[in-house]
Amino acid sequence: APPAPTSSTQGHQQEPALLLGRFWPLWGISGKSQILFALVFTTRYLDLFTNFISVYNTVMKVIFLICAYVTVYMIYVKFRKTFDSENDSFRLEFLLVPVTGLSFLENHSFTPLEILWTFSIYLESVAILPQLFMISKTGEAETITTHYLFFLGLYRALYIANWVWRYHTENFYDQIAVVSGVVQTIFYCDFFYLYVTKGRGKK
């Protein structure tokens, strides 16, 4: 079942907030990656309509969703004139189609909510790819600030720490989450490498 937001997901929550504070200009930010992250949170937190865990859990999930969609709105509507749509050209169907298929083939149980939760885990692991593609295409990362990178790295580091802690204290191991997280970490390492080699020193 979808887990409650943890300190690791709170690190992720800071990312759209940072982007909102960095909206001028949006050159270098992949709107398509932000769309994928919004879809990740939407499919992961559909249990808002079926299960009540706590007020904190509900409020955090709602905040995640609001931040994600406000970020997308800012990029594509409010400040679209500063958005580099020409270079943000990654084909999202190349990710959505295989992720959807894999979600039906490999999941914890064949129920709508579990399939959608699994979809969100798989999609999150590759959601950064449009941003990587954009940086590779333009050869620069002007608006990807060090603060944004810090919270991306913090998000992954806290997730890994959470895995180790839960395995040590609860003997809990979620193969889908761990494998997807490893894939995501590899892509983030590539992201950091591209930033250092192509965007270092740029503001």
TrEMBL record:
Pfam families listed in its UniProt record: ER_lumen_recept
Biological processes per GO annotation: protein retention in ER lumen; protein transport; vesicle-mediated transport
Domain of life the protein comes from: Eukaryota
Membrane topology annotation: Multi-pass membrane protein
Main subcellular localisation: membrane
Keywords for the protein's UniProt record, in alphabetical order: Cytoplasmic vesicle, Endoplasmic reticulum, ER-Golgi transport, Membrane, Protein transport, Receptor, Transmembrane, Transmembrane helix, Transport
The keyword ATP-binding appears for this protein: no
Keyword set includes Metal-binding: no
Signal sequence range: none
A GO MF label: ER retention sequence binding
Subcellular location: Cytoplasmic vesicle, COPI-coated vesicle membrane; Endoplasmic reticulum membrane; Golgi apparatus membrane
Gene Ontology cellular component list: COPI-coated vesicle membrane; endoplasmic reticulum membrane; Golgi membrane
Transmembrane segments: 24-46, 58-76, 115-135, 147-165, 177-196
Sequence similarity: Belongs to the ERD2 family.
Protein name per the record: ER lumen protein-retaining receptor
The species this protein was found in: Geospiza parvula (Small tree-finch)
